[in-house]
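Checklist before submission:
- one chain only
- standard amino acids only
- sequence pasted in full

Submission:
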Amino acid sequence: MSLVTPSWHRIWLFPLLGAILQPAIGKPVPARRPVQLIRSNWTIAKPANLTAVAARPTPAPAVSPARVTFAEAGYADQSLQGLSSTATYYLRIPPTGTLQNGQLTLLLTPSQALLLNKSSVTIQVNGQPALSLNLNQLTPNSPISVPLSSASQQAGSPFVQVDVKTQLAISDDRCKDLENPALWLKVGQASSVTYQVAANAGKRLNLSNCLPTKTAIVYPATASPVDIRLVSALYSRLSELRPGTVGLFPASQAPDSLRNLIVVGELTNLPARYRSLLTRQPQPHQGLFVLKAATPQQPEVLFVTGSGQDGYAKTVDAVSNSTILASAFGDFLTINEARQEQLDRPQSDRLTLAQLGGQPTMMQGIGSLRQLYSFRLSDFSKQPNEIETHLEARYSGLQAGDRGYLNLYINDVLFSSTALDKSGLISVSPNVKRYLLKPFNTVQAEFRFFPGTNVCQNSFTSFFAQVDVQRSYVYSASAYSSETLSFLQYPGAFQSKPLAVVVSKSQLTQAVPGVCELVRQLNQRPAKTLTIPSVYASDSYKASTDENLLAILDRNDPLWARLSKAPVQFDRDFRLYGDDRSKPLFAVSDSVSCGVAQIFREGDQSVLLLSLNGTAAAGTLQNTARHLTDQLSNQASNVLIAAGPNRYVFNLTEDNASIDYYDRTDYARDWWGRYNLYILGGLLVLILLAFLYVRSKVNVSRALFEN
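Returned file contents:
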């Protein structure tokens, strides 16, 4: 629409239109000062022709997808071998994550000898086929991706199950390929599952499901016995729920990079840097768990605290009993009363494979079919001297020309081989001698099946086998008894009585990692209730023969006087010798940094004693404790010395001549024995020089006298 306006209207119309159009176009229309009166025409623009500059809302920051790798879930590179094979992976997805729009990424490396067009791989997610392809469809050095959805995870389960199944070939004749070692496909540990953060992540997170995501525990810079007991309980529980290491930090050393952690401490002793995040306060004599969700500026923190030492101590029993936190679906929990339930681990002379975690898996294929079962010597009520391995299984009966065997291995050592027949049933009970046993043992059942020639020419039928895990067992056929304890008997020898942990007062804070490792070893097998021993400072401990003892002492602790049966009196400097007494194997003095572990009996008590010398006390204690139950500990060793990356194990008795104690007088004697030849040689040289000097003076004097 056009509007013709007299020029004198410009005096008031320009400012008016400027005020009208300014909100629409974003710029003010200046009111021009009229210089002359002229006629002017203009067009009022339609609203559609106006360009409006509106303030756009700032978009919410995008949430990056997260991922969990196979390595983080505890899986190393795995090779699938043979004509057909299967590998199963379970990866934990945090409660705040969802697999909707997620992705499975697999790094597959096939053998270079395979016929790629006749070899295939099938990926199953949550038991359902997700992808099948021939290996010639793989791009070298490139991963394959499988899209995931919310249906990829079973409802109510924190895990996603991934199965990788292979059918491999090297030639057109599968019978020739049967035992070919070049049949393999490697699944890389860098494979991963990518997941999204759920829109309702805050509502999903609660006390019942937050523990597996925690990566570190922060405790007060000056730890108390209750702090040690609580941290060791949490450490054992986290080690059971998640793979990998759990960080342990005193508050003064906790890095700022921690994003998912547990903070512990009595209410008045909580680390100051985290105290402001605590939004609830416990009532007097109450324990308290509070979960603080993460924000872009703050980490996710689980607070475990209490009012007073009695209220704070109640949280220990709440952690040791898994049902308490498992039934807490909110973000806080108050503990008015808690008690530690009785130990529910199987403690008997006979343990079924089902009790050891075995599953009735159906094994199917050609060649070698294997199943692993693991156990510890401490799982038995008494230390076994000989173990009977009873195994019952069903399998597909052999036809004419077929050959089959059941091989049993203990720690990769073959100890039984039995031929299969057409019956389809087998029951064997071979014994394992003690010299084949280690602190941690694996029994492997291997079915080997070789089809007859006629099967290869016509059809190729797969062999199957299934172990009856309820009727198969490992049995302590005879108990092992010895006058002296060895590391092989830890922690089994300490489970017959209540257990106490005694720590030198000067070492309470430094001892936290070491105690955590010892308590974790007591709770290796998952159980409803943890074994959490009482913790005392050495100056307040009252010795009792009704309990076994774990002690961490410094070299000046008065408690050494009560431990007269210790193989090494570490409060004194000493040297250890082998057959050659002129060369010590190891020497300990004030200048040597090391940790010493000893296991022995003091009357009716079983005692494990750790002591340290030098700097880096916390790390030294933890490393020493870790070495106690490794597979290198032999049956007879009762003294272990950890010095830096090196460790030494010895078998010492009270009257053993291999150990030599020495004091300041001995230092002087050693110094003289080491340098006496040099000193005597130097004295002889000085005497000779003095003689030559005196002789030269005498000759000079004689010459002067004669002249």
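Reviewer check: The mean pLDDT is 81.
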